[in-house]
Design goal:
This protein is mainly beta and 686 residues long. Helix content is 6%, strand content 46%. A hairpin with a 4-residue loop joins strand 21 and strand 22.
Length: 686
């Protein structure tokens, strides 16, 4: 063989290897998919705003979906109230009036004039369907917060749970102001909320809960007396969803491990099994005629099955495993809620990816998508583009990019096999946990859509979850702690320079960086980390009820702050000049510390429990976001409570200022962002 020919072959092999390497690197670094959904009606960001709020971004996460009897509209119960949609176009019609509450379940009454709901507080609000006005709220004398709510189709009965050992059956008369309740004492339970399903005739309630290892029996109860009727046995898997057929003769249950059982209520046996490999079933819905069964899965797929199958025996004598007639793909995350239209021709599916999708049940084609129902917002970053924000949805592995001028998100990224843990203030960097890699913690460049660096040497176990992170204001430093970190240390990191030749990035592994300092001193879990604005100090606090102030330049400890308050530290904030530190926790107090001396200066008592603290840029006002969704303003010098503002329905996770301090941004567990007019709320009660 000629030398030139051999050289050419070697060159081609080398080029092939390089191309393959580049391809693999690109696949590894860009394990994301883009989201470019927009709402059909952008005016909803101005609907039913709290006092002092200029706009609301997001609609709250999905708890329940119900069609009107004529099929022209559907209602969605969310963490901030009830939305009404046009079922033909998918366009938003209204956000029902009243205080913003987490609505767990809904139903249309028989005359269709009233929509009835159950909120997280244990109240029963009733709305006028035509104008969205709140007619009244039914309250039982024993009402308490609830976790789940399932209505009968006519709204006459409601089943709720608020713990692990009891269910409550509410008997509702909308002409009365106080429903009656039948209490059901559930059997032994092991730490998970019970699932419930109600027969269409409202006579029976099915519940399931882990009673002992590998035992998930389904119990059936009489809703009028609360007495136990019978038990369905034979499923050792973790049941995640249940629904009765329209005639009440069949109960469908879907489990975590690939299987749907159709239980015959008369014979109390499983008459059919539907199976899908590597699928976790999360939601089930019967069509009104009982012929179709829809299933939603953990991977976002939706299947439609023939629910009329008869018992069949295979050659092994076992019940046959049937296949779905349609497999619908479009969602990017778990499908948790579903509803058929009254004629069965349309199926709505609600997902943790923040969308409701409408499907033709005959062809499987998608009719429309209703975006904006993203779940908890854990953090917010400010992008370079004017009027833009980026939000982290850790539970959904999702970043969304919002245009605050038009009031909704314009794009986003869904991170497969990853969990987003934190975002830098400029939104350029996120910390992600990659489930597939041994070195799971990584820095991801959001603008270039690639891994920027791998975090090594921190000592966190591979299975660690529940991290606490904090970026410095300039995004060049960050601190980390894992709740599973048994050595009780905080790690301090320097973020490496982004400038690296393009081909070097493609051909070489991402740089692995080590912590610059390991900060020791905490005896228990750390829940709060925060840098001073000049990034020279770091404060850390947690369940050991002490606060450490660290010198970021040297890694040494400056002060240890303690008080006589027996209080877990949940929120920390440095003043803009770095001379004061505010702290808050379970004791319903906010403490102000002088970090030049390490002494307690003043204290605000009997405040709402703070979950996030933030100083106004001039340092004169401290803002507290609370566990129940309120925003409180305090004079940072006198500790006087200046004002309280109602807005979110749940835990406030992040606070920041934009527009040169003219707008306060609050992000919440309820899945929404509120843009507050600072000049307005700062003048209240002054």
């Amino acid at each position: 063989m000629k030398t030139s020919r051999l050289f050419l072959i070697i060159l081609m092999v080398i080029v092939g290897i390089l191309v393959l390497t580049v391809f693999v690197r690109m696949l590894t670094d860009r394990d994301t998919s883009e989201i470019t959904l927009q709402s059909s009606n952008i005016e909803f960001s101005q609907w039913e705003l709290p006092v002092g709020v200029k706009a609301r971004l997001g609609k709250g996460s999905i708890n329940d979906i119900k069609f009107s009897s004529d099929g022209t509209r559907f209602a969605v119960a969310t963490t901030i109230g009830v939305w009404m949609y046009d079922a033909i176009t998918g366009e938003e019609i209204a956000l029902f009036k009243g205080d913003r509450q987490d609505i767990k379940g809904i139903a249309f009454t028989q005359d269709e004039n009233v929509l009835i709901g159950a909120n997280a507080l244990g109240q029963i609000p009733l709305w006028n369907v035509e104008n969205g006005e709140l007619n009244k709220i039914l309250v039982h004398e024993d009402f308490k917060p609830i976790n789940t709510a399932v209505f009968s189709e006519d709204g006459k009965k409601l089943v709720t749970t608020r713990g692990l050992d009891k269910a409550q059956v509410w008997h509702i008369d909308d002409k009365s102001t106080s429903p009656t309740i039948t209490y059901i004492e559930l059997f032994e339970r092991r730490g998970r909320q019970p699932l419930v399903a109600l027969t269409p005739d409202k006579r029976f309630l099915a519940t399931t809960i882990l009673e002992k290892i590998d035992s998930y029996p389904i119990h059936v109860w009489n809703t009028a007396t609360g007495e136990h009727e019978f038990t369905l046995k034979g499923n050792p898997r973790w049941i995640k969803c249940m629904v009765f057929s329209p005639d009440g003769k069949t109960l469908a249950s879907g489990d975590e491990y690939e299987t749907i059982h159709l239980w015959d209520i008369e014979t109390k046996t499983s008459r059919a099994i539907f199976k899908a490999n590597n699928v976790s079933f999360q939601a089930l819905a019967y069509s009104p005629n009982g012929k179709l069964l829809a299933s939603g899965s953990g991977d976002g797929s939706v299947r439609i099955w023939d629910a009329t199958v008869k018992e069949q025996k295979g050659i092994t004598g076992k019940i046959s495993q049937f296949l779905p007639s349609l497999n619908l793909k479009g969602h990017k995350d778990k499908v948790s809620k579903m509803a058929f239209s009254p004629d069965g021709k349309l199926l709505l599916t609600g997902s943790l990816d923040g969308t409701i999708r409408a499907w033709d049940t005959t062809t499987g084609s998608q009719k429309y998508t209703c975006p904006g129902h993203s779940a908890e917002i854990s953090e917010v970053g400010i992008t370079k583009n004017e009027g833009s924000l980026t939000t982290v949805h850790s539970g959904e592995n999702q970043l969304l990019h919002w245009n605050i001028n038009i009031g909704h998100h314009v794009s986003g990224s869904y991170y497969r096999n990853k969990m987003i843990e934190a975002i830098s203030p400029d939104a350029n960097t996120v910390v992600i946990k990659d489930w597939r890699a041994k070195k799971r913690l990584r820095l991801y460049d959001t603008s270039k859509q690639r891994i920027h660096a791998i975090l090594g040497g921190h000592g966190y176990p591979q299975a660690a979850i529940n991290f606490v992170f904090a970026f410095s204001l300039d995004g060049k430093r960050f601190a980390s702690y894992s709740i599973e970190n048994r050595v009780r240390v905080v790690h301090l990191w320097e973020i490496p320079n982004r400038s690296q030749p393009y081909f070097k990035r493609l051909l070489s592994r991402s740089k692995t960086i080590q912590p610059r300092y390991t900060l020791e001193g905490h005896r228990d879990r750390v829940f709060a980390l925060v840098f001073s604005s000049d990034r020279k100090m770091l404060a850390s606090g947690g369940t050991d009820k002490i606060i450490h102030i660290w010198n970021v330049e040297t890694g040494s400890k400056l002060f240890t702050l303690t008080s006589d308050r027996d209080d877990t530290i949940r929120a920390l904030a440095f003043s803009p000049d770095g001379k004061m530190l505010a702290s808050g926790g379970f004791s319903r107090s906010i403490l102000f510390w002088d970090v030049t001396t390490g002494k307690l200066k003043t204290e605000c008592q009997n405040v709402e429990y703070p979950t996030i603290l933030k100083y106004f840029p001039d340092g004169n006002t401290l803002i507290s976001g609370t566990y129940n969704g309120k925003i409180q303003l305090f004079d940072a010098h006198s500790c006087q409570l200046l004002s309280t503002h109602l807005g979110h329905s749940s835990w406030v996770n992040d606070l920041l200022f934009i527009d040169d301090g003219k707008t306060l941004v609050s992000a919440s567990k309820d899945g929404t962002i509120l843009l507050w007019d600072w000049e307005h709320i700062a003048q209240v009660n002054r």
